[in-house]
Amino acid sequence: MASLTNKRTDGGTLTVGTQTSQLLEMLAPWAFRAPLIFMVLFFAIPMAMTVVFSVFERTMFWMEPGFTLFAYENFFFSARLVNFLNSMKYSLISVAICFVFGFPIAVFVRKSIPQVAQHRVVLLFILPFMVSEIIRVFALRPVLQRNGLVNTTLMDLGLIDEPITALIYSHTGVVIGEVLSFLPFIVFSGFLAMEAVPKFIFEVCDDLGVGPWRRFLDVILPLAAPGIFAGSVFIFVNGLGVALLPNILGGAGAVNAGLIATQAITALDFPLAMAVSAIMMTTLMALLWIGHRLFDLTKILTPLS
Amino acid sequence: MNQIEFNRRQIIALLGSATAMSGMGTMSMAQDQALKLWAPGIAKVGAQDWSDMESQAGISINSIAKSARADESIQKMVVGDGNALYDAMTDNGGGMEDALASQGAIVELDISKIPNWGNILPSYNEGGASADTIRYEDKVVAVPYISNADSLAFNYGEIGEELNSWEALFDSQFRGRAAMQNDFGPTLTNTAIYLKQSGKGSIDNPSDMTEDEVRQTCEFLIALKKKGHFRTFWDGVQNGADLLSSEEVLVSSCWEVIQIFAARKNGQDIRYGTMKEGHQSWNNIVMLTRGGMERGMDTAFYQLANVYLSPWFGAQTLAGLGFTPQMDGVQDYVDANPDMFDADTKAIMADRLARKQARRAVAGNSWQNVFPTNIRAYQDWWARVQAA
After folding, report:
1. Is A78 an interface residue toward B (CB < 8 Å)?
2. Cys-Cys crosslink for B91: which of A69, A128, B96, B102, Cβ 3.0 to 4.6 Å?
3. Are B92 and B239 found together in one domain?
4. Hey, which bits of B242-279 come out as E strands?
């Protein structure tokens, strides 16, 4: 700005082009500060407020400033903890199934699809996200229910005499829904992770006569671990938080952390809802910390840098 | 008169004129403005949009779709910007008018400005069973537009007999084929009605239970759940109707609209019973917000309220979604307007009305209570039911 003033004083030699470039130069740092401000305003502050609100006193319609751990006591010393732990258990099962089905797809794309087509193939997994999640989940009902496609087919083939009722309105139903909803995430993160595995490694392993199982355990898995972990965390956290799945596919009283918070809000118990959210955030951060210690999650971005 | 005094007087006069002008402006604007009504789709009958309601009321309506959650509504009106946004609003099945009136979010109504008030069901008059649902501290603050007594839907085609007791919902013959609502309010109330009337529980008021009564009710449900009695707990109209029409469940405590949709879907004989132990009753009401009153929208509100208490509205809400009209004279209105409904619809309406009257007459009925006194006990015990 100082030189701008000087030039004007010295005879007004500043051209429009110079002004524009100087303005751009001045704004350039804000291109990086703006996302930071955005994240602070709409992510960090609301997260911090969630923790603050969780220790407020509950009033009839809202809450008032104060300090009480009643909401946490209400969570940890009630059946809500059992529900939370149960939803963690089933989310872990979903993660494992997603890994078993999803990661081989990522390996296959990386190993066997020509490089020019790899990204296009992975993009195909975005297609399900073009359909609203509620419709995708609801569409499972005519497939899995008592008179649904699976049971009718199995009965027509003479493989079963009675419909299998465990496919839906059960924990199994929720796990099926989670796998179908979140499988693409392990494919994406697995593919990203596989970019850290040079393609010649497969050829070297073949030349050395290393079998597929050892190759997977000793070579691919350690190299791709950060990406696999990131995808797994994403699926796990969604399994805990997306209330839609237990609502539509779960059995009597099927519940996860998202539903616990929703039900607390319905009863105008905002501190409890905030406490549940704070516990979920803490769980996520703890998982990321452990993951980073074990696998150095910054390695996920290594192939891009 | 010195210069300072002149200026002061002039300013006061100008302010006075401006205030008067702005007041006139508000009045004339209020006459032209559309009534901002926060209501669900079930608050209208006739055309798909609000045009029939508008022409009946003689006002313009700017309808804002309302979700079915009581917590959101109360929040928005008491600590949010609801009064700035809405002139009138509906509730969510009972219990909200006290909360809203106690916080000054809605205003007392002048029923002399609603000509059809004379049609209102007698139970809404002072001393009646439903009187409290539209009053706060003995002052009328709401106009009812639909109500019902929730009951048990059952697949008559599969079961082959009429069910008239909640006993059926908990009977082992329907193990794994029974459902209840995924909401502690109606589910615990319906169960408590059964426990009280059957003598299996010591419960005074199923709508507003003590902690011990909540415990008894939930322990009963937990024992059944552990035996695998409930297929699921439904959530939402589509969900509830789908469970019945797919024959995933044969008995379900649900809203009547769910039974109607389920029966229509595949043409099955799915019926709605009259339970001898009683039902959970509820109504939806329309209220004038404090903001609406301040903006001079009260006249438009009263015109709309008058439509809600007209047999024209009552007949159509009965025919369409099966809700109970809130006024007398619906049958007379249908008879006086023979071309309005075809013969089949008239027969359905007469049947529904008769069954509603039968349900309403059962002694053990309770009113839905959105916020019971011991709501923490309800929440905590409901979590245990879910965890069982």
Report:
1. yes
2. B96
3. no
4. 251-254, 270-272
pLDDT in tens, chain A (305 residues): 444 444 444 445 556 677 888 888 888 888 888 889 999 999 999 999 999 999 999 887 788 999 999 999 989 998 899 999 999 999 999 999 999 999 999 989 988 888 889 888 988 888 888 888 888 998 999 999 999 999 999 999 999 999 999 999 999 999 999 999 999 999 999 988 888 788 788 888 888 888 888 888 888 888 888 889 989 999 999 999 998 899 889 888 788 999 888 888 877 889 999 999 999 999 999 999 998 888 887 776 665 44
Q: Which residues of A touch B371 (CB under 8 A)?
A: 268
Pick from B69, B233, B238: which is nearest to A253 by CB?
A: B233
Record: contact A61-B247, CB cut-off 8 A: no
In order of A4, A14, A21, the CA distances from A10 in angstroms are 10, 10, 20
Tell which phi-psi region holds residue B46, choosing left (phi > 0), alpha (psi between -120 and 50) or beta: left
Amino acid symbol at A194: M
Structure tokens at A169: 């309105």
> Beta-carbon neighbour count of residue A69 at 10 Å?
13
Nearest C-alpha in B relative to A251: B232
Q: What is the CATH number of the domain that holds B172?
A: 3.40.190.10
Which residue of chain B has the CA closest to A146?
B248
pTM above 0.80, yes or no: no
B28 in any annotated domain: no
Q: Which residues of B touch A (CB under 8 A)?
A: 69-71, 74-75, 78-79, 99, 103, 176, 179-180, 182-183, 225, 230-233, 235, 238-239, 242, 246-248, 371, 375-376, 378-380, 382-388
Structural domain of B86: 33-141+282-309
How many domains is chain B partitioned into structurally? Answer: 2
Q: Which residue of A has its CA nearest to B183?
A: A263
In a domain, residue B352? The reply is: no
Same domain membership, residue B265 and residue B172? yes
Q: How far is A223 from chain B (nearest CA, A)?
A: 40
Count of C-beta atoms within a 10 Å radius of residue A275: 28
Exposure pattern of B206-243 as b/e (b: 16+ CB <10 Å)? bbbbbeebbebbbebbbebbeeebbbbbbbebebbbbb
Is B72 found in the same domain as B165?
no
Confirm whether B62 is domain-assigned. yes
* Helical packing angle, A270-295 and A45-54, nearest 10°: 130
pLDDT in tens, B200-257: 999 999 999 999 999 999 999 999 999 999 999 998 888 899 999 999 999 999 999 9
Contacts of B79 (CB under 8 A, 6+ apart): A61, A62
